[in-house]
Each structure stands twice: as C-alpha cells, then as structure tokens.
Design goal:
Radius of gyration: 27 Å
Low-confidence stretches: 524-538
Mean pLDDT: 88
Shape: globular
Strand content: 5-15%
C-alpha cells in the first residue's frame, strides 16, 4: 500500500475519533453528577435539587445525542478504511463492540427516554433508579469500547491461525481482564468525571458572577468540587497504573514518552523537562527527577527500564525471527495438513514475531528477500516520533495536577467558607472549562500515536491494515467527515450556550407543594408568606 493512503486513513480515523471524544467525557461524568443530584433530591425532598437535576440533565441530553451520532459514524470506518484489520482481528475486536451495543448502549438508550419524560409518571425513587441506570449504561459503554482498544494495545487471549490467516480468540476471560484495558477504563472514566466536574463548576461560577440562580450554582459547585477532587486524584493514581502496565506490554511507547534513549541504571529517573532530538538521539537540557520513573514503571528500585536504542535492537532481532516464521507460514499454507511437522514446529517457535516480519512489507513484497538495510529501516519504524509524545504527556500531566489544585480550592471554600468564592476564582473556573477536553485529547494522542507503527501492538502493522482505497476517495470522505462533525460541534455549542443562558426553569408545582409544607416556618422567619420566593432551598 502507498504510504499516503495509510497516512490519510490514519488522519481520517484520528479526526473522527477525536471529534467523537469531545462528547464522550462529558457524557460519562455528567450522567453520574445528575444521578447524585437526583439522589440528594429523593433523600431531602427539596425542590432545588430537582431543579438542579433537570437543568444539568438537559445539558447531558444535548451532549448525549450528539455523542451517539458521532460514535455510530466512527464505527463504520472499520469496514470502510480498515477492512484488512477487520478481517485479521475481527473475531476478537468485534466481540466487545457487539456486547457494548447489546448490554450497554441499549440499556442507556432504553432508559434515557424515561429519564427525561418520566418525571410525572414514576415515583421519585423509581425515577432516580432510572437515572442511575442511564449513568451505569454510559459507563458500561466505555468499558467495552476500552476493552476492545486495550486488546489492540496488549493483544492477549488470542493466537494466529496459519490456515485462515486470522487472529482467533482463545480466552475471552483474558481479553476481558486484560491489565491494559482495565487500567485504561478506570483512567478514562475518571478523566470524564473531571471533565464534567470542571464543566459544572465553570457554568455555576458564571451564574454566580452574573448574580443568577445563585442557590443552584452554589450547590452545584459543592457537588462538582467534591466529585471532581476525588476524580482528579483518581486520574493521577490510575494514570500511574497505566504507566506500570506499559512497562510490561508497550516498552517502546514508554521509552518514547520519556525520551529515554539509553537504558538507565535502576531505578530510572523521570525527565521533567527537556528537548528530545531524534537525529542525535539525546535529550537536550534535560531536568531529571531521580528514581521517579523506576518507581512508576517497575514499582521497584532494582528493575531496569529499557531505552529506545536497546528496544530498537530487540526489534531487529524480532524481525529476523519473524522472517523465519513467515517462511514457515508460506510452506504451511502451500502444503496444508501435509506440511512437515518440523516446519509447523518452527512456525510455532517463531510465530510471536510474525508481525515484526510484516513491517518489511513497506519496503519489499517478500520479507524473506529483505536486505540488512531494509531490516534496519523496519526496526527504526518501531520508534514513534518522540518529541510530540514527550510534550503531550507532560502537558496532560500538568493539567491533571492543576485540576487537583482547582478542585481542592473550591472544595475548601464550599465546605469551610460558607460557599463564598472570590471573583478571581470564579473567573478562573469559567476560563478553565476547555482544559479537561484538551487533557483528554492529549491522553488519547499519547495512547494511539505512541502505539505506532502498530494497529495491534506487535501483531499487525498499521500499513497492512488499511482498505484498498485511493487517495482521492480518502480526501473526499475526510473532508465530508470533518465538515459533518464540525457542524455537529457547532450545533452542540449553540444549544449548550442557549440553555445555559436560559438557565434552569422553575418547577412551579413542586415549588408550590414545598411552600405549602413549610408555610409556617417561612412565616416565622420574616412575618410574611413569601409567595414568590425564587429558590425555596433554605
């Protein structure tokens, strides 16, 4: 395949995936926050919490609908642009996607209608259960998607069948409990919770600055700060777990993120700052934190983390081993069941490196005819571009720690300072609303760009995975997807701004009922029956 077709296919999937993930984290987090607010309403029976639930649920609904639209379109690309990938690993990759649709998405979609239109048709408790089911469905969707993606990062529970030329599942249990998938799931959903918390915090801060809906805003800040602080701390802890799992499954990605060219003496330092240079293979002006990377990556003080140069040498050795597997594979496919058992044993011995031989297909049609120079070039291809990974990771981490500080401050003010917030802090909360989306997109960039040149790590190179399409077709569909998704993004932003400016509506019947129950206490408070109190929450 021509390289431009591969790059255009990658660009198209990257654009659609990153557009889609503009909607996903807010859905994950806002569904939980809305469920928490409704639970408080059921427990306290205060109308302000019902009002809060309905308002934030409206914004959740807008985001949910557009997220579904972009997600469904994105999945069609596996058949359009990545047909050989779908053929090669569809038996494994397709299973969690199918379960996601049957178990999670249908659960979510079934109850979301009851959540929005069942307020006056169900008891308070029943409606709260429905809201929690929507939240659980949203998070279960993420679970199965991330199990599929985690398998691409760490392909366990599967083996290659030389007769069908496909990967086949050997253990669904191993796929389900893949350490990379589990670490990605908890890290991703925690990041979604932070995103929603920052969003709720920022919108509520804007209301306080404008002097509107102050009771709703203060209570929303209290919920968002508490939930957000716990989530932000979780993101850092669970991100550390992702680094630990990468030490076992994706060593080259970890080395590239750290710009670790040479294997460091254990325990390896963490490079806090520097300028990676791929040509000279050194990091200029590096600032190291002693022992930190060793502790993160190995949980020990005596285990080495291999550097890029050593891993490149290992890749060359695996390519040569893969060529042996490729040669045996051609014999097995030609002779079938009559193949010499010695050939079959040779293939089984080297089959784990077959994917590395496929890296040579970029340079030569038959890997067995590859020269030493071509093997060296293929080994170099296993090194992802270092400097974008290096800086993307550090910016993501810096934002993560900033969210912890922000949430801790607002939690302190909400819990111990009577929900009084300085104007500078409120303006800061409004300004930082886009930041968690930036952090989330950077996280996915690190995860996916760092896996190159593999679609399935160590098994299937990206250059082999694409469909037989022309560059013109890819450019046209890329332009179409970007235009369509941009329109959806503008629509969501317009609707979000519209309903935020409009603010929560007053639930008259619920408010009047609350007034009637508390009329005597309100008379005692100021000597009059306040029939037009806007927020009966005191």
């Amino acid at each position: 395949m021509e390289l431009d077709v591969v790059e255009l296919s990658r660009l198209q999937f990257a654009m659609t995936a990153m557009y889609h993930f503009l909607f996903v984290p807010l859905t994950l987090g806002l569904s939980i926050i809305v469920a928490i607010m409704e639970t408080v309403y059921v427990m306290t029976n205060r109308p302000i919490w019902r009002q809060m639930t309905k308002f934030w649920a409206t914004l959740f609904g807008i985001n949910f609908v557009l997220g579904v639209a972009t997600g469904i379109t994105m999945e069609f690309q596996f058949g359009m642009n990545w047909s050989y990938y779908s053929h090669y690993v569809g038996d494994i990759f397709g299973a969690p996607l199918a379960i996601e649709g049957l178990m999670a998405f249908f659960l979510e979609a079934t109850f979301v209608g009851l959540m929005f239109f069942g307020w006056d048709k169900m008891s308070k408790t029943a409606h709260a259960v429905v809201t929690w089911l929507v939240a659980i469905g949203s998070n279960f969707s993420a679970l199965w998607i991330l199990i599929a993606n985690g398998w691409m990062q760490n392909p366990v529970g599967a083996e290659f069948n030389p007769m069908t030329m496909r990967m086949e599942m050997t253990s669904f249990f191993d796929v389900l409990f893949n350490e990379v998938a589990q670490a990605k799931f908890v890290h991703t959903v925690s990041a979604g919770y932070v995103t929603a918390s920052v969003f709720v915090l920022g919108v509520s801060a804007w209301y306080l600055l404008k002097g509107r809906h102050t009771e709703l805003a203060r209570r929303s800040i209290a919920v968002a700060a508490s939930f957000g602080l716990a989530s932000a701390l979780s993101v850092v802890v669970l991100g550390d777990e992702s680094g630990y799992s990468a030490t076992h499954s994706q060593q080259m990605k970890l080395a590239a993120i750290e710009a670790m060219w040479e294997t460091e003496e254990a325990p390896a330092p963490f490079t806090a700052f520097g300028f990676p240079d791929l040509e000279t293979r050194e990091t200029h002006y590096a600032v190291h934190i002693p022992w930190a990377m060793g502790l993160i990556g190995t949980r020990s003080l005596d285990t080495e983390i291999p550097g890029i140069n050593d891993l490149e040498q290992r890749a060359e050795e695996r390519i040569r081993s893969g060529i042996i597997a490729y040669d045996a594979l051609q014999t097995i496919r030609a002779e079938g069941e009559a193949a010499d058992p010695t050939v079959t044993a040779t293939f089984e011995e080297h089959s784990a490196d077959l994917g590395f031989a496929f890296l040579l297909l970029r340079y030569i049609d038959d890997p067995r005819q590859a020269t030493d120079d071509q093997i060296t070039l293929a080994a170099e291809d296993t090194i992802p571009m270092v400097w974008p990974l290096f800086w993307a990771f550090r910016l993501m981490v810096a934002l993560g720690f900033a969210f912890i500080g922000m949430m801790a401050y607002f939690f302190y003010r909400a819990s111990f300072r009577g929900m009084r917030f300085p104007r500078w802090a409120l303006w800061g909360a409004v300004a930082v609303i886009p930041a968690p989306w930036i952090a989330a997109e950077l996280g996915w960039f690190v995860a996916e760009f760092g896996r190159q040149p593999w679609t399935v790590d160590g098994v299937l190179p990206t250059a082999m995975s694409v469909s037989h399409l022309g560059a013109a077709e890819l450019l046209i569909t890329l332009a179409g997807f970007v235009t369509f998704y941009s329109v959806l993004f503008v629509v969501e932003m317009g609707l979000m701004v519209k309903y935020i400016r409009k603010g929560p509506f007053l639930d008259v019947e619920e408010t009047d009922a609350w007034m009637a129950r508390h009329e005597h206490r309100l008379r005692t408070h100021d000597g009059n029956v306040p029939g037009a109190i806007a927020t009966p929450a005191e």
